[in-house]
Design a protein that fits this description.
Strand content: 5-15%
Largest sheet: 5 strands, parallel
Number of strands: 5
Order of helices and strands: HEHHEHEHEHEH
CATH superfamily of the largest domain: DsrEFH-like
Number of helices: 7
Structural class: alpha/beta
Shape: globular
Radius of gyration: 25 Å
Strand order of the largest sheet: 4-3-2-1-5
CATH class of the largest domain: Alpha Beta
CATH topology of the largest domain: Hypothetical Protein Ychn, Chain: A
CATH architecture of the largest domain: 3-Layer(aba) Sandwich
Amino acid sequence: MKRLAEQCRRGAAMGVLGVMLWLLGASSAAWAEAQVITPEYEPPRVVYDFYLDDPQKINAALYWIRSLINPLQASPYNMDPGLDMDIVVIIHGTEIVTVAKKNEEQYADAVARMRYYKQLGVDFHVCALAAQDYDYAPEDFQDFITIVPSAFTDLVHYQQQGYAVIKPEVFVRTQSLESIR
């Protein structure tokens, strides 16, 4: 009787293993046959809500803009950011210091990227209330910055105009990609 029970357990284990191997093979085959789809997209109207807890996170947040623009510039969409995309970035967190002229050297990479995006048609707004909190006057900011009365009224305005709101969440990675793969 014990021998029969052991054979049943082995058979069940082999059956489970067989099913798992089959599923693995089937999912690999399905992945190999997967197709990249290219849905039809309307030209985007987006407002990015930048409210970061550390100004160093600005570079990672700017990648969120790249992640929208680059795929839509490429084939099959071939959209022109200046003509086909309406993108606004509202700055009202600690990252406000990155667009102050006096800090340009410290945040040179971020400023250069924002200037590049501005050339593509992206508008950068700074909240006047936040600027006052940091003791900045309008002339303290880079020339590509537009001062708006309030980040919140600006966000509401764009939402009422039908813009999608994207709020980058920038996490500090504590492990390498290799270690968590």
